[in-house]
Design a protein that fits this description.
The complex is a heterodimer of chains A (622) and B (640). With 622 residues, chain A is mainly β. Helices cover 2% and strands 46% of the residues of chain A. In chain A, strand 26 (378-385) and strand 27 form a beta hairpin. The longest helix of chain A is centred in the first third of the chain and has 10 residues, at 22-31. Chain A starts with a strand and ends with a strand. Chain B has 640 residues and is mainly β. Chain B contains nine helices and 34 strands. In chain B, the strands form eight sheets. In chain B, strands 20-21-22-23-34-33-29-30 form an eight-stranded antiparallel beta sheet, with no helix packed on it. A four-stranded antiparallel beta sheet of chain B has the order 1-26-25-24, with no helix packed on it. A four-stranded antiparallel beta sheet of chain B has the order 2-3-4-5, with no helix packed on it. Chain A binds chain B through residues 306, 372-374, 415-420, 428, 430-431, 433-434, 447-448, 463, 466-467, 469-474, 511-519, and chain B through 64-66, 86-90, 105-108, 110-111, 115-116, 118, 122-126, 129, 131-132, 134-138, 184, 382-384, 591-593, 610, 615. Strand 39 of chain A pairs antiparallel with strand 9 of chain B.
């Protein structure tokens, strides 16, 4: 059953921040991710929570309530009966692919998915362009066939060994372990054809976001990927999820369908007046303009630098499908936008109001005025509607852009970079140490609590927030984060297992002593005193980059000390020593030599705790 | 033939050596010290935050990007940069003690240990960790090693929340100097600091420099004693804590010196503005109220001797010739180094500061001595801008053993000052009162950012006694004022050898105390003053000149006319005619085509938001008289 759902809003930070800087807008436009808000509830989102909206699925496709992978066995899911999850369970024979009944042109697609160990699957857009979805855990140099890559094209005519070309691997590998939920968002622009069917514009991945990180951006695709039905490209086509042999499970698949062509402009003219205009003047009473003429594209390049001026643009807007349109001015300075003689954005209201337009031609009038000569001239107009992805219809070179050069810290070895670190709970972690590894598994450690509070995969640190101009002392992970909440002390004193678990270090005489770099073992050992003993907290990226192993040792056995291993909404015991936290967010593996932990309820949270006498060892896998 | 050639060279060298003063040009700083390059590995961003000399002659460098380097053979052609540590949090100080390097990161004092002896630190021991609110401006500096082997760390205030302009101490010991024992125990030492970028131990005593802002009207060097309060009340938030060495509370301070927390009708706080009329306090008033108040030993007048005082360092015996034992103070914004001579009068330090060396490539933040007697200078300007337009780097100041004609020392006398020179003065000019001028001024003590110069007064020079060897001149000065800064200008005094002006003819003496003692009698001194007897010079060509046409256009203001004004009102502390410095070039201001009146308005009430590319905001300059402001404005608009 196709459910038409008007409630799911594509995230739009733009409308919430009227003060947004043009450079952010530009970045957003470039990423193709800018969806202007203020739209009526007319978006067409198709939710695929079962198989009804797919063409007759093969027997390898099943619905389930849960899928659990085995980190030691290839291509295998253990599934629990139920609904909500669609799973490809490969059998002895080749499975079938899954096709949507609907066909799509431009689309936004989002879903959660997980793969089994060494599984290779993917999703074909328009049955032609293959986004790889595969188990790429621990890979440091991803290929086009790895998770988030655009699978290569294939041409036998190039000769044996040279058939493959134009594969586009993800910019960094941010893949999760098998059996953990990953999230993908694809913003796709279909190819365009003229009336005689000739392709006039290539297909584009405007943005591909994997686990919260953009790994492809504004990527033009010259033709179908290997495995497409043929070489023919089409305006519309179905989504195909590969089921041949890769064990993949997905849920919350939502596809937003765009229809109709975006508006165009014609008969553009401009009239330029120099001088300071803080209100819209009566044009009949103005002195003769400095300049006027025709434009083939809206722009402001005819304005002299460092001056005050007013430009009045006129022209026609051509609308091809009925919708609520937003015409948003993007200027340094002020202005107005009038469509069909209706003011949609005036001097006092930077954010334009939507206007309902049926197919046809309407007059456009726009004013751009800059009353502060020194302000850089920056001019743009974007158009969007529920069924039109926001796009810049004016000349991009008329937008003023200024961005600092990126400063990304690499991890040739065990790499430390201290900085403040902001976490989503609104806290800034002050005595934070970021530790990076060449295996591309990194973590942040709070020296005030002796706690690991986030891990991430992919690239290490963006130091712009700290090192550009004065900076604010903080940095940001470049890769995809696993966040473990507000840091709390790892070593706690509990008089009994049922004693309440302290949320901070008060009363524990906690004093940080710093850290040591154990170069031989690529370990970073954090050292502190608490509860009357010295504590050594050794952290090591191990298992070929799959896991962060943690060994906490106490100098003295002072009694009643416990280690807080994990905290979440839900902690599932999978098998001896194995735990799964928060609906397959990450695994905990208790070292064989360490005592079995127990899952405790603390408030509305589940906490995995274990007693520590001398030392305790476990790993976080994700 | 060959030997004769050598002979010529020898003769040439000898004569040049014997007669340094007959140089054709007026001497400049370049004639005595050279700013030498230190080759830095390509691609290395060396934003120096800390510098320290190691016993073997190596130089330790820490950077704002968190690296620690040891420069081996720092004065050779190819110094070797060993990366000793990395990944630390914006290190703004580095010190060596008993075989180990110590550094202040944003949040802690750290001991660096190379346990496995591979030349790279592997143990990062937290000696003491302090609280921070997480604001960018909470920088921490140091450590400096106290004579007892403990560490001094100084801490910046933050800003933000609803009063973005006000220095704030949101967590304990921000705006303080703290003292940390090697075992990690901490004792707060003194407060009132705002942005204490430089500290130094001079003869066993702690001194620090601060940066202009609220309550801190100008950069200066302050002698910090245990329990001192040095001016900004934010750090007083914590004096009720049991280990505070002073008990003065913020409320007590506020009762005497209003913090001016005022709100507008919408309930938003208003930044305190400098008031052109009405009563105001000056720093000595605070000293009268609070015995804890420690006034600067030596002011480095804002805009003249810098805009952002940084490191201070004593010149060791045997270094820099006659200047050994004196103090050098760096300045980030003006990319230069000042020289300070201090003396103790009535138990308190005071003294004089001069410009010493300018034209470093970037903001001077740190200094350390190399074993060959040269000065290593560590630089950065990121986020603030500086006169030197490089963003960062390291240079070396080398003295070439020629002695510049300078004031060597200036000492306070009961009736004036005694000036000692590095070279004999020309008796004629030195005995002429017209060669000297003295003025005094002070600043406001208020919650406004910075301060105009106030209470200016002329201090007539009544007599001078020059020693027979020409190395000393004692001047009798009228109207000396205790606690005031005295501008001592010796523009007319020439050297005996070559007849040159002093390399830096103006010094700024902070007269905290006027010593007791015998005064000179007017009969013992020269009272000759050529300025009083001079007859006006008549221009012989005047008759041949056409009378000026009936010209209503204002006369173009010349560079010669404007220069003293730009200096007087410290415009040139941040602006250059053609070149972007801390602020925009005057030419770029001209391009905005403001009217002269508008520029005057902007001088009084700057609009930093109009200049988004500049990181340091211009303070209001209400002290510039309207007619001078107008002159400056017209001159700016005449720049093309």
């Amino acid at each position: 059953m196709i459910r038409i759902d008007g409630s799911l809003q594509t995230p739009s930070t733009y409308t919430k921040q009227p003060g947004v800087k043009i450079r952010n807008l530009w970045a957003a436009l470039l990423a193709g991710s800018l969806i202007l808000g203020n739209h009526a509830q007319a978006q067409t989102n198709i939710n695929y929570n079962d198989f009804t909206a797919f063409k007759s699925p093969g027997k390898n496709w099943k619905t389930a309530s849960k899928a659990i992978a085995d980190l030691n066995r290839d291509n295998l899911f253990k599934i629990e009966k139920g609904t909500g999850i669609l799973v490809n369970v490969p059998g002895k024979n080749k499975g079938t692919d899954l096709y949507t009944a609907d066909e799509f042109g431009d689309l936004d697609l989002e879903m959660d998915y997980m793969v089994a160990k060494n599984a290779k699957s993917g999703i074909f857009l328009q049955d032609n362009y293959l986004v790889s979805l595969s188990d790429s855990w621990k890979i440091t140099t991803p290929l086009a066939s790895d998770n988030g890559g655009i699978y290569e094209r294939w041409d036998e005519g190039r000769g044996k060994g040279n058939e493959a070309y134009e594969g586009h691997p993800a910019r960094q590998n941010v893949s999760r372990a098998p059996g953990l939920w990953q999230h993908i968002k694809i913003i796709f622009k279909a190819p365009r054809f003229n009336s005689s069917g000739k392709k006039i514009e290539n297909a584009k991945i405007l943005q591909l976001e994997l686990n919260g990180v953009t790994v492809q951006e504004n990527l033009e695709l010259s033709g179908p990927s290997r495995g497409a039905p043929g070489n023919e490209e089409t305006a519309m086509g179905p989504i195909r999820i590969l089921g041949e042999n890769g064990a993949i499970a997905f849920k919350n698949l939502v596809i937003k369908k765009y229809k109709g062509e975006p508006p165009t402009l014609s008969d553009l003219k401009y009239v330029l007046y120099y001088g300071k205009y803080e209100t819209v003047p009566d044009f009949t009473k103005l002195p003769p303009p400095a300049e006027q003429g025709d434009l083939h594209i809206l722009n402001s390049s005819f304005v002299k630098r460092d001056v005050e001026f007013l430009v009045r643009y006129t022209g026609n807007v051509h609308i091809y499908h009925e919708d609520d349109y937003v015409f948003q001015r993007e200027t340094y300075g002020n202005g107005t936008v009038k469509i069909n003689n209706t003011m949609v954005g005036d001097l006092d209201n930077y954010i334009s109001t939507p206007i309902h337009l049926a197919p046809g031609t309407y007059p456009l009038e726009m004013i751009y005025t800059k009353a502060l000569g020194w302000l850089p001239t920056s001019f743009g107009l974007t158009i969007s509607s529920p069924d039109t992805r926001a796009f810049l219809i004016s000349d991009e070179t008329s937008l003023y852009r200024e961005t600092p050069d990126p400063i990304v810290i690499g991890t040739p070895g065990n790499t430390i970079l201290r900085s403040f670190m902001d976490i989503p709970e609104g806290k800034r972690i002050i005595h934070n140490v970021n530790v990076g590894s060449p295996q591309q598994l990194h973590y942040s450690y709070d020296m005030d609590n002796g706690a690991v509070f986030q891990l991430w995969r992919g690239k290490f640190i963006d130091a712009i927030p700290m090192w550009f101009s004065r900076g604010d002392g903080s940095s940001k992970p470049v890769g995809s984060r696993l966040q473990l909440g507000i840091p709390k002390p790892s070593i706690v004193k509990l008089l009994s297992l049922n004693d309440s678990i302290p949320a901070d270090t008060s009363g524990s005489s906690f004093v940080t002593r710093g850290y040591e770099l154990d170069n031989k073992n690529n370990q970073t050992i954090f050292v502190y005193d608490a509860h009357g003993t010295a504590v050594r907290d050794a952290l090591q990226v191990t298992g070929n980059g799959g896991e962060l192993k943690r060994t906490v040792s106490l100098e003295k056995n002072v009694g009643n000390l416990f280690i807080r291993i994990a905290e979440g909404e839900k902690i599932e015991h999978l098998s001896k020593g194995w735990y799964l936290v928060d609906d397959a967010k990450y695994y905990i593996h208790i070292d064989d030599g360490s005592p079995a932990p127990s899952v405790r309820q603390s408030g509305n949270k589940s906490v995995l705790v274990a007693p520590v006498q001398n030392s305790f060892s476990y790993s976080i896998l994700f | 033939m060959f030997s004769r050639f050598i002979q010529y060279i020898l003769i040439f060298c000898l004569s040049a050596g014997m007669l340094p003063a007959v140089a054709q040009h007026a001497p400049s700083e370049d004639d005595y010290t050279k700013i030498a390059r230190i080759p830095v590995p390509e691609g290395l961003v060396l934003e120096v935050g800390g510098l320290t000399s190691l016993p073997n002659g190596d130089i330790g460098v820490s950077t704002r990007r968190g690296d620690v380097f040891i420069i081996e053979n720092p004065t050779s052609i190819y110094p070797y940069f060993r990366k000793y540590a990395s990944g630390l949090h914006e290190i703004l100080g580095l010190a060596y003690k008993d075989g180990f390097l110590y550094c202040a990161q944003r949040g802690e004092l750290t001991k660096l240990i190379d346990k496995d002896m591979d030349g790279v630190a592997d143990v990062f021991q937290t000696v003491y960790s302090w609280q921070l609110s997480g604001h960018y401006h909470e920088y921490s500096y140091g450590p400096k090693i106290a004579p007892d082997g403990s560490f001094f760390v100084s801490t910046n205030l933050s800003f933000g929340d609803d009063e973005g302009w006000r220095g704030q101490s949101k967590v304990p010991w921000r705006g303080w100097v703290i003292n940390i024992q090697p075992n990690g125990s901490m004792n707060p030492f003194a407060t009132g600091m705002r942005s204490p970028c430089g500290m130094g131990i001079i003869d066993g005593e702690l001194f620090y420099t601060d940066n202009q802002g609220d309550w801190i009207p100008s950069g200066s060097i302050v002698h910090v004693k245990k329990g001192s309060f040095v001016g900004n009340p934010a750090g007083l938030n914590w004096t009720s804590m049991p280990n505070s060495p002073l008990k003065l509370t913020r409320e007590q301070h506020n009762a005497k010196f209003d913090e001016q927390r005022k709100k507008d009708e919408k309930g938003k706080y208003i930044a305190p503005q400098n008031q052109l009329t009405g009563p105001y306090a000056i720093p000595p008033d605070a000293k009268k109220e609070f015995p804890e108040m420690q006034l600067p030993a030596v002011y480095l007048p804002h805009g003249i001797l810098g805009v952002s005082s940084s490191d201070l360092i004593k010149i060791p015996a045997g270094y820099f010739g006659p200047f050994e034992g004196q103090i050098l103070v760096g300045d980030q914004g003006q990319s230069k180094i000042n020289r300070v001579f201090m003396e103790k009068v009535n138990g308190e330090y005071q003294g004089i500061a001069w410009e010493f060396r300018s034209n470093f490539q970037s903001g001077v933040l740190r200094m350390a001595w190399a074993k060959d007697g040269s000065l290593i200078v560590g630089e950065t300007n990121r986020g603030w801008g500086s006169a030197g337009d490089a963003n960062q780097g390291i240079q070396r100041l080398v003295w070439n053993k020629n002695i510049p004609f300078e004031m060597l020392t200036v000492k306070a006398m009961p009736d004036g000052f005694e000036i000692e020179f590095t070279q004999p003065v020309d008796q004629k000019t030195a005995n002429d009162l017209a060669s000297y001028s003295v003025e005094s001024f002070i600043y406001k003590y208020h919650p406004v950012y910075g301060s105009p110069v106030v209470n200016n007064a002329n201090c007539p020079v009544k007599g001078v006694r020059v020693s027979a060897d020409g190395l000393r001149a004692r001047i009798i000065v009228d109207s000396l004022r205790q606690n005031y800064i005295h501008t001592i200008s010796l523009n007319g005094v020439l050297s005996a050898n070559g007849g040159h002006q002093l390399l830096h003819p103006v010094g700024y003496y902070t007269l905290n105390n006027i010593p007791a003692g015998e005064k000179l009698k007017l009969t013992e001194v020269s009272t000759k003053n050529s300025a009083e007897t001079k007859t006006p010079v008549i221009n012989k060509n005047v008759k041949n000149e056409k009378p000026p046409a009936n010209n209503t256009a204002p006369k173009a203001i010349t560079e010669v006319e404007i220069k003293p004004l730009l200096a007087k009102y410290t415009c040139n502390a941040c602006h250059n005619a053609d070149k972007r410095q801390i602020g925009p070039a005057f030419k770029d201001v001209a391009k905005r085509k403001y009217s002269a009146d508008k520029i005057v308005q902007l001088i009084y009430n700057p609009q930093p938001q109009n200049w988004p590319g500049y990181s340091t905001e211009m303070p209001p300059m209400p002290q510039v008289p309207k007619e001078d402001a107008k002159k400056i404005a017209e001159w700016i608009n005449g720049l093309k």
